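Progress against Task 2.4 (sequence-to-structure conversion) is shown through the following example record, which the project officer requested during the mid-term review.
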Amino acid sequence: MAPETFTFYVQPWYRKSPYYEATKRAGCTSWGLYNHMLLPTLYDDPVAEYWALVNDVTMWDVSVERCVEITGPDAFEFTNLLTCRDLTTCAVGQCKYVLITARRGGIVNDPVLLRLDEDRFWLALADSDALLYAKGVAAFAGLEVDIQEADVSPMQVQGPRSRDVIRSLFGDAIADLRYYRCAEATVDGIPVVVSRTGWTGEVGYEIYLRDASRGDDLWRRVEEVGAPFGIRAIAPSEARRIEAGIFNYGSDIRPEDTPFHVTGLERYVELDQSQDFIGKDALARLAEQGVDRKLVGIQIEGEPMTDEGALNDFWPVYAAGPHAPAADAAIGRVTAGAWSPRLEKNIGYAWVPSSHMEEGTPLDVGSSTGPRRATVSALPFLDPAKRVPVS
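Structure tokens generated for the chain above:
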């Protein structure tokens, strides 16, 4: 059965990236909506894009990662209140993956935090209303802070040759940034912040453009410098982020989910810190009581999940059995799935009850092409020590 096709109309109120025209020149054929902006979602066959990422170097328009900027005399105290991470260990020029938590411990967002100064922080957001949440907290926190959306537009340069591209653009000091560090820089008079981060599990950088009028200039410059290293524009790679155990907020994680409900995020709840944070009491109770459900990794049997076998909706999860399950017997849902060319397996994530969260547990899933068997697997699927991105 051929996949369904739809027409996507670009409305004038959809925000466009400073790189929008450049992505069209680069061959982008598909966009989605993310943080009220257009996000490039396809240039070429996803498997071809995957191999370009893991073998060479790629560039992505991710301006949709809108940044909440927190400044003012109480910026540190306020930012530390928002997250279950202990920011007393975060120096100026350092980045952290953080979880913004609500009163009952639910995850409001899981941004990368950049500490640009003692009293200036950026939260590079996933798709959510975290800016409004932060403003709401500030209205009642009694702290002197200013909160706004920073006028910055990130692009990512990712892949094993990304360091060569960054070195050619900015020199040794920026290219040699340690993992999860950031610094201000310029190229051809274009002001940016560069961080050693990315959504891939590969060596990579993010370049935060600070002058939206220079978007096309920056894109052309990265293309020019990257040409000797085989750089190409791609969309965010679903297969590579799943391999790396990276979650997509809004599909894998929602506000009702706490860090203790998500495999791997438990370690980011730092309850032993002396400072209070929103949701601390609720998370302390969960740490003692445990959870009733879990987001786990799964391997999915059957044909490669490409084209019509791809996950375009949440698939129901059933307890494994010899007979076809009843439609109302679902115990969970598959939130993400893709064919991993390197592992030669279908991999993904699924929400399951705690009774089915142990590694090796068999499951049945209702895919778009019929029933499939799945198995709970350890996360991440590749490079659990993160040796690749740290290298």
